[in-house]
Structure prediction request, 1090 residues.
Amino acid sequence: MDVPALETEALGAIAAATTVDEVEEARLRYLGRKAELPQALRAVRDRETGMALNAVRQAIESALEERRGALERAELDRRLREERVDVTLPGEELHVGTLHPITQVRRAVEDAFLGLGYEVRDDREVETVAYNFDKLGFAPTHSARSPRDTFFFENGTVLRTETSPSQIHILEEQEPPIYMVSIGRVYRRDAITATRYPIFHQFEGLAVDKGLTLADLKGTLLHVMRQLYGPDRRVRFRTHYFPFTEPSIEPDVSCGICGGDGCRTCKFSGWIEMGGAGMVDPVVFENVGLDPEKWSGFAFGCGLERTAQLRHDIPDIRALWEGDLRVLRQF
Amino acid sequence: MKVPVSWLREYVPVEMPLAELATRLSVTSAEVEGVERRGVADDGGNLGLFRVGKVLEAAKHPNADRLQLCQVDLGTGEPSQIVCGAWNFGAGATVAVALPGAVLPNGLQLEVRKVRGEASNGMILAEDEVDLGQDHDGIMLLPEVEPGTPLADVLPLSETVLTVEATGNRPDLLSIYGLAREIAAIYDLELAAWPGTDPARAADEPVPVEIDDFAGCPRYIGRLFRDLTIGPSPVWLKARLLAAGMRPISNVVDVTNYVMLALGSPLHAFDWKTVASGKIVVRRARGGETIRTLDGVDRTLDPSDLLITDGERPLALAAIMGGEETEIGEGTTEVLLEAANFEPHGIFKTSERLRLRTEGSNRWEKGVDPHLAEQAARMATELIVDLAGASWVGESDVHAGLPERPVVRFRPERADAVTGIETAPAEQERILAKLGFERQGDDVLVPTWRARDVTREIDVVEEVARFRLEDVPFTLPYRRAMFGTLTREQALRRRVEDVLVGLGFHETYTPSLLPAGAEGAWSLPEPISVELTTLRTSLVPSLVEAARRNTDAGAERIALFEVARVYHEGADLPDEHRHVAGLVEGGFGRAKGVVEAIYAALKAELDLERAEDPRFHPGKTARTSAGLFGELHPALLDGEWGAFELDLALLFEAAGGPVAYEDVVSFPLVRQDIAVGVAEDVEAGALVAAAREAGGPELREARVFDVYRGEQLGEGRKSVAIRLAFQSSDRTLSDEDAAELRGKIVAALADQFGAELRA
Prediction:
């Protein structure tokens, strides 16, 4: 028996098989009970010949296995191809909901400040005049104290007009250093229009420590504005006036629509007003029993609706309050 | 405030680009909200097309009775023919002419055209045609000037106006001179001396002034003028007032407004002949007293209102508006000029109560410097004498001592410590000096016009800081310890929100205030609308409204949730609680599935009992330790809706701590189902609870998966199928072990509920 010739012949036949049946035929022909090689194997008596023949048998077996596998897989693929579907048809309906854009902004604000090591809090919405105005240093003639600007209840309490009472609450509760951001609902007596709603949300930051400066306030606001609006934004500061900060400033962020060249969104100034800020006024420290020579701090406040409107280019603030699924599903 | 730039230039040399000036002022002093041009545009040589002309001939137009045909010398050698509709001039008049090609402020471009057959080479101008006044009764007559002179050399044809929004602490910036002072400090420019110098006084007549209430009126300067002529103001004055947004009225009234705008101290003028008593008494109103103000409205006064009276009758509502009786009119020849000072709080209250705000009250309520009255009186006197030909014949100045300049300790290093940037003490002193502060040893003397605003060292620091704002670097606080983490409640709130979003809910925000009549202890006595009156005690009604609107809009698969406060009665303040509520299409099962998912996500045990609540279906409502869920009461909204409202604090109390691992891998789980027949009123939850009790720790799962009712069970009975799973953490349970546990459970159910094992 010419073993190498037999091996060559068998491997050739296996390679030439085009169906699983032809592979089976080849198996019977070369490895079946009556085939030449198994018979030779049964008859062999010396180890050398036995090992050589066995190697050939293994080579043929593995070629058979491989060929059968390949043909079976090709056969399966052929059948599966006939089961093709229109992949552009919709999937099974599984509905996922949405977080309101204000919540998305709230989380972005929380995360920005958590990263700076701030704690997050919220305080009551109905406040005493002491916390909403007096302790924050509002002058007796300040227009915010007028029932024309602020919602008063019969017992003289108010719906808080800003998140700033949180400054007093935390300063009364904790020893500095304090780094906190307070986020929640606030109320002002404005008629409902496209740009104003009597209920809205603010975030209020407060840092009280030794040696804090206006430069730290500028750096913090730059970081936060870039977190909220994107890393290429510029921030500028204008002198302003608030009862509870001195010096007081208003931060502007460069307009994201026009990049600062001027457009309708920024009223052709290139800048968008973001809220109010400043160094904590000594009167606030005195009102909570802290020494303004020893402690310094900064505070800032900003509207969440405004941030959401700017992020998503929402022209009418009422869209945020109507619970309209056509609106909500976009977010 | 509207600020004409030409006016600013009288007090400070404004030569920088106005856009830059606007930015610097916004950053350092007060926001510039707009830079607007008014009058004749000066681009493309337009301004050069406005010239002075001398009328050589003027005669009736041959073809039109109402028109004049004029020959006008425009300095070109050849007279120009111009048709004109005005008749207040003749040959020899010096007039303002716009040449063909000129563009008027209203946008009209002139061209050579024929008017009733005669060529007209331009237009002889009336003041309203170039924004210099409101008069259109005739053309402007100019003093004699060389024909052909550019008109802009003679008249303020073109103006740029800044709109400046001063903050409430800076009444000094409600004046042109005050803004000029800021610009002088920003750009280190020379500020002109205070405008206004007293002319010679013609006589020394007494001007009797009494102040009853120095707290309300700390100062009253009265100056008397005789032999004056009321008439229109000159064009420059009218143009200034118009550019500043005020209406010119007559020379004397215009002067009071002009000086108010220039210096920030409002003035008033009375027709002295109408003041019968010949004296001024400043006092509080008497109950029931009335006055008819300049706007023609009769106003009933309150004893807290401050009045200018003649001793008996009210003449003016002090600081807010004059009275009609003493108004300056065409025939007025004697005038009492009031340059006073009023205390802000009372003025604010009166103006609020009467809902009457004026340019004057707006300044007084922010606090005007009493020292300023004197300069305002000087400036007005000079102008009244000059423009109305008046004789100034008397003066009195009544006050109970004027406030001293505040003295404030100021350490320049304190400014550095606050700003975080070094500013050399000499530079700090330069800035402060430009603003009118004076260094005195360790202290600074505050200028009188800043006395209300600058009383402490930090206020002086701000004066320096606002000039360095752009130079202050961006840094972050240096910290030795930082702890920034959400609290457990904040983290769990996010978890609840995310679970609901995953379940297909859309988060919504609705108003905290419900319509009048809604349940709730806290209602606004003066709401802005009945819709927003009462603080809510539940979020469900707001969600029902939102769902209704969505249904009306044709929305499908409505599933809404909100996380917000509710407000319960409380003592001095409401008890505020944060709730989560949801509303979803589907019934009780839907609501319960959602609540189970929330509890599962929080690793909280859901304990519940049957409940009733007016918002919910009376038979399909349950209470958990944190709130209610069930089917919405069908009377509230058509269809079947699942609803829930949970108190987040209570929900988080039920939330589990860190998970304790159980070995559920090493030994197999053995499943067994049972079905038992029980009476209809036996609740599935009770069966499961009993099964758990009887099965002990090796019963890992007991969940009802089917409830069946049928004839073979008999009336009033049902079959409840429960899936049981047993597992031990230390051995493989044999079939016998499982059978034994199952037997215990079946026995317990039979014992407690008369349950019959069916399978």
Q: What stands out?
A: Residues 335 and 633 of chain B are 76 Å apart (CA to CA). Chain B has a mean pLDDT of 94. Chain B touches chain A through 92 residues (CB under 8 Å).
